[in-house]
Structures are given as structure tokens and as C-alpha cells.
Design goal:
OB fold (Dihydrolipoamide Acetyltransferase, E2P); ten-stranded mixed beta sheet; about 5% helix; single chain; 2 domains; five-stranded mixed beta sheet; mainly beta
């Protein structure tokens, strides 16, 4: 008579030891905070525009649209040429503008303060936009003044904000010959802190034309950035002053 033994399944049992990476004892739980994408800008910098008025239009609501032409000299492969780009701003005042006022501004240098900046986002479908992709900006204001000044390139936009310098760091660049990062002697990085209620965040801005030695004198001081530029999530400028 043949003896039959029952078949048993081999089961792998994970032992709940302190070294078991699957063990959830003493687990700390939390949540990843996603950065909220907003369809508008937070008002953390001021915008100033200077330009030579090339043309104008009085709209039905009495606002006045001013057009400028920015001229940027470019050098590509040793070929130097001027590139032109239209710029525009809408001025809305308490009283409607007249054609006479617009005609008097043509050819004049003007300055506009407290400019509002609005972005036009990439449209995906009707009512749907990609708030990570900006196609262009719109600028509006409620006042302007004629100034006696030659405007470089015919149009200048300045983004201005204040910061307190927390620390200084040297800027780095990649040396193709040495194939490694080296210190950029003509640039420095200002480290500053922004507080929002009880939360503080660190930020950096690279200043072109500021040596590391000169940057040391700014540590702990209140500084005004006069020409903020944003490329992705990085901030740059070339004009600063001590407040």
C-alpha cells in the first residue's frame, strides 16, 4: 500500500523585525504639499515702464493704448543686426482720454509707474489653460508722465523689489577647457529670506557685474533690485542699490 503524504505549499512569511522595511510599526505619517498653480501673479514686485511712444489708440471705454518699439541689437555668428519688437500698455484714467492727448504723446518719452502685469497662458481647449506656460504679458496702469530722457532701445521695463541680504555666495560657471565648474568673478549670488505669516522661505538672485568682494559689503543690508529678470525658477539682475 502506497503511503501518500499531503502536499504542503511553501509560504514565505516576512518576519516583523526592526529591520523589516515593510513593517509599518511606529510609522510617521504626513502629506506632500503640492505647489498650487495660480492663474494670477502674487504682487511681490513693482513694475516701471519707460518708452518712446510710437503710436496710440483710444478705445471705446476711454482708455488709451500706447505702442512702443523695442530695438535690440543682436550678434549671431558675427552678423550684427537690429531686432524689433512691439510693446504695449493700456492706460485707464478716471476721465476718458482724447485723441488730442494721444497725438501729443507720439514721439515723446514717457514713464509709467505702478504697472499691473497680467499673463496670457497657453490655451489647451475652451476654458482650459496650462498655467505653467506663459505666451505673453499684458500691462496696464492708471497714470503716466512725460520725461526728458533718452530711452535706451526705445523701451525699458523694470521689475523692482526689496530684499534683506542674508548671505553671499559666489556664482559658478562651467569652464569648457578645464571641464569643471569655476567661480564667475563677475557675478555674485545674494541669499535672502521671504516671510509669509509664520512661514519663511529662502531665495537666491544672481547679480551680474557684482564681484564677490564687493558683494560682501551688502551682507545684512536692505537692498533694492531695479531690474529683476526671471528665467524659469531662477532670478537675475544687474542693477541694485542699498536702500
Amino acid at each position: 500500500m502506497e503511503n501518500k503524504t499531503p502536499k504542503t505549499e511553501n509560504k514565505v512569511v516576512a518576519s516583523a523585525t526592526n529591520n523589516d522595511i515593510y513593517n509599518e510599526d511606529n510609522l510617521f505619517t504626513g502629506a506632500v504639499e503640492q505647489e498650487e498653480i495660480k492663474p494670477q501673479f502674487e504682487d511681490w514686485f513693482k513694475v516701471k515702464i519707460q518708452g518712446v511712444v510710437k503710436s496710440y489708440k483710444i478705445h471705446d471705454n476711454g482708455s488709451m493704448q500706447l505702442k512702443f518699439q523695442e530695438v535690440v541689437e543682436k550678434d549671431i555668428g558675427g552678423v550684427v543686426f537690429n531686432d524689433y519688437e512691439d510693446k504695449s500698455i493700456r492706460i485707464t484714467a478716471t476721465k476718458p482720454f482724447s485723441n488730442k492727448q494721444g497725438q501729443e504723446l507720439v514721439g515723446k518719452s514717457i514713464e509709467v509707474l505702478n504697472v499691473s502685469e497680467t499673463a496670457q497662458y497657453k490655451k489647451i481647449s475652451e476654458g482650459q489653460y496650462d498655467f505653467n506656460k506663459i505666451e505673453r504679458y499684458f500691462y496696464s496702469a492708471d497714470n503716466l508722465k512725460v520725461i526728458d530722457k533718452d530711452i535706451e532701445n526705445g523701451y525699458q521695463l523694470f521689475k523692482i523689489f526689496e530684499l534683506t541680504v542674508k548671505d553671499i555666495a559666489p556664482a559658478l560657471k562651467y569652464d569648457q577647457r578645464k571641464r569643471k565648474q569655476v567661480i564667475d568673478k563677475d557675478k555674485s549670488i545674494l541669499v535672502y529670506e521671504i516671510s509669509n505669516d509664520t512661514l519663511s522661505t529662502l531665495h537666491k538672485i544672481t547679480v551680474d557685474g557684482l564681484t564677490f568682494a564687493n558683494a560682501q559689503t551688502l551682507k545684512g543690508k536692505d537692498v533694492v533690485v531695479l531690474d529683476l529678470q526671471q528665467f524659469g525658477k531662477n532670478y537675475y539682475c544687474s542693477k541694485i542699490k542699498v536702500k
